[in-house]
Amino acid sequence: MAIALTELGRLLGRDLDSDDSLVRKLRDAEVVRSDVSDDELTATFARARREHAALDDEDQLFNSPEERVRVFLAPYLNAKGRGWAQT
Fold it and tell me: Are residues 76 and 32 in contact, defined by beta-carbon separation less than 8 angstroms?
């Protein structure tokens, strides 16, 4: 069974191939700290994509890309974002 999506995972949706869209969604929802640069966020997306691609097919079934990005974003989330990452 796959991990249930959090509010943050649902926000990210399947736009994982569009860095601009992801940054815009995060900024519009005000879930990342204001001192975090767009470059830091896009580097985070790239790291999450690489790790997800390295998983074998079975593990990919249980770890959605949206939730993998959520884990990598943890250091950049503000209080609202941390709440969205848990629910």
Answer: yes
Using alpha carbons, list the distances in angstroms from residue 54 to 40, 51, 64, 77. Answer: 21, 5, 13, 25
Domain boundaries, the chain: 7-86
Tell me the CA distances in angstroms from 57 to 5, 32, 85, one per residue in order.
19, 31, 25
pTM score, two decimals? 0.86
- The C-alpha atoms of residue 55 and residue 42 are separated, in whole angstroms, by 20
Residue 6, phi then psi, degrees to nearest 5: -90, 175
pLDDT digits (tens, 9 = 90+) for 54-85: 988 888 777 777 878 888 999 999 999 999 99
